[in-house]
Specification:
InterPro entries: MFS, MFS_dom, MFS_trans_sf. By secondary structure, this protein is an all-alpha fold. It has helices spanning 9-27, 32-38, 43-71, 73-92, 97-126, 129-160, 164-168, 170-179, 198-216, 224-250, 265-294, 300-328, 330-349, 362-384, 392-433, 441-453, 467-501. The chain folds into 3 domains: 1-193, Up-down Bundle (Growth Hormone, Chain: A); 197-255; 276-511, Up-down Bundle (Growth Hormone, Chain: A), CATH 1.20.1250.20.
Length: 511
């Protein structure tokens, strides 16, 4: 079919690309136990890979946006797709955690950082007026759908076939995109490689990676001496990056990103609220499967089934929120979203105990999903509305970078809070239980920590008569840690409510 005969060809291609990128983030969380067993790795390692995937997208997003101006949006998109395909093949064939990390987190992350900003500009340049609104609505809806059905797809593949098909099936979409690539239009390059702010790219990438790695190291007390160094140096480098961007702008040089956008109250607060929203969402999607598969012994399919009501709720209320914005205004829908999702977190925190069944947490996940749906319905449009048409590329790069940074930090930080709560609780419980009568407390502590890290799939290195009590202690400790972690998530969401108060009631554009 001639590309001019079907006007929605571009948005369909963009939707397929965004679908496979979102699918990775949501589908693989339910496969944690299977990944640990088949790749002989640990919970902390899988957590690091999930966080690293979002981190690499975030750290390379600004560079990926700028490369479009050098190579053209179509070429940038297709190069990103090739890199993503190589990563998908590598992840599918993974024989250990390192290979999975290279394929999924590194190669797919690099590919996604080139694809995501290109899809935005391809859709934006291909449609006008109502068609443009419709196209972006379809694009956003498919992204939400990918996140919604990801857990159940991951659960079906992992339980009844193999988790490798999550990655392998993405190759089908990639092949289709290449077959219909002629629908895409190329943009004329406006920059040359010599115009690229290479120092800015290095500073932005390095600073974000150091910060998230510092958070991830919190899970291992022996590495705590490096945590402050990594987070501190990363923060300083990011400040230097911002100063370097301002200097280039003042000198009339091409910056990596137009950080003047951050001075606009709507754009700045919109990005802050996006980060705050992503942290609990990422944490929720990581720690719920950990609890279900360790304490209730749920398989991947059951885990995906438990998460499905929340996913559907998020999708429904993101669509409903978009309709309500014309009545209530974005600011007030955001405030409602933060309050409702905080309430959902509190309800979830109260539902965890030694006897919790999978069905018991569904009501809390639905309330949480209502709030998150409202937030997702507003944040992109609200934040991007602050940018002029000539700033859309920079605005999109910054927004998606901060959004993925929030997801990465959420996976790292909330996962760390849960694991620290578990490990700390184990030590306290061991001392009061008396099961260390024939072994040192340190020996049993070490054995139980390794047991949790392996998602309770190994044999405890303790006397057999102690195993039932040890299992009870582990499950009880995980339940207690979940309760405290969700209470912290509620506080983070309440912080989002406070920051959203400072948004203007009506949108303002950048001056």
């Amino acid at each position: 079919m001639d590309k001019n005969q079907y006007k929605w060809g571009v948005v369909i291609i963009a939707c397929m690309a965004i679908f496979i990128i979102v699918l990775d983030s949501s589908a693989m969380n339910v496969a944690i136990t299977t990944l640990i067993v088949e790749l002989n790795t640990t919970l902390s390692t899988i957590q690091a890979i999930i966080a690293l995937y979002a981190l690499i997208i975030a750290s390379l997003m600004l560079l990926g946006s700028k490369i479009q101006d050098i190579l053209g949006r179509k070429k940038t998109f297709l190069i990103g797709l090739v890199i993503y395909a190589i990563g998908t093949i590598t992840a599918t064939l993974s024989v250990n955690a390192i290979m999975l990390m290279i394929g999924w987190a590194v190669l797919e992350g690099i590919g996604a950082a080139l694809i995501l900003p290109a899809t935005t500009t391809l859709v934006g340049a291909s449609y006008k007026g109502k068609d443009k609104v419709t196209a972006f609505g379809i694009w956003g809806g498919i992204a939400a759908m990918g996140a919604a059905i990801g857990p159940i797809i991951g659960g079906i593949f992992t339980t009844y076939l193999t988790w490798r098909l999550v990655f392998g099936s993405e190759l089908v979409f990639i092949v289709i995109i290449f077959l219909f690539r002629n629908y895409l239009t190329e943009s004329k390059p406006t920059l040359k490689w010599k115009d690229l702010d290479k120092l800015g790219a290095l500073l932005s990438i390095t600073s974000l990676i150091l910060i998230v790695l510092g958070i991830l190291l919190l899970t291992t007390p022996q590495n705590w001496s490096y945590v402050l160094l990594l987070i501190g140096s990363g923060s300083i480098l990011f400040l230097i990056f911002l100063l370097s961007q301002r200097r280039r702008i003042n000198k009339g040089l091409e910056p990596l990103s137009d950080i003047r956008l951050l001075k606009n109250r709507v754009f700045g607060l919109g990005n802050i609220n996006s980060i705050i929203q992503q942290i609990p969402l990422a944490g929720f999607l990581f720690i719920i499967p950990v609890f279900l598969q360790q304490v209730t012994k749920a398989d991947a399919f059951t885990t995906g089934l438990v998460l499905l009501p929340a996913s559907i709720t998020i999708l429904i209320f993101s669509l409903l929120g978009a309709r309500l914005s014309s009545v209530l205004g974005s600011k007030y829908i955001l405030m409602i979203g933060f309050i409702v999702s905080a309430l959902g977190s509190i309800i979830l925190g109260g539902s965890f105990n030694l006897y919790t069944q999978a069905i018991d947490i569904v009501p809390g996940t639905i309330v949480f999903g209502v709030g998150i749906g409202f937030l997702l319905s507003q944040l992109t449009n609200l934040t991007m509305s602050a940018a002029r048409s000539d700033q859309e590329t920079d605005a999109s790069g910054l927004f998606n970078a901060f959004k993925n940074l929030g997801y990465s930090v959420g996976t790292a930080l909330i996962g760390v809070l849960l694991l620290l709560g578990i490990f700390g609780g184990l030590s306290t419980s061991i001392e009061s239980s008396g099961i260390a009568a024939n072994m040192s407390s340190e020996q049993i502590d070490s054995s139980l920590v390794a047991y949790v890290e392996k998602m309770q799939t190994t044999t405890l290195n303790i006397p057999p008569n102690m195993v039932p009590l040890a299992n009870q202690i582990v499950d009880s400790t995980i339940s207690s840690a979940m309760k405290h972690t969700f209470n912290i998530l509620a506080l983070i969401l309440l912080l989002g409510f406070i920051t959203s108060i400072f948004l203007p009631s009506k949108r303002k554009s950048v001056n």
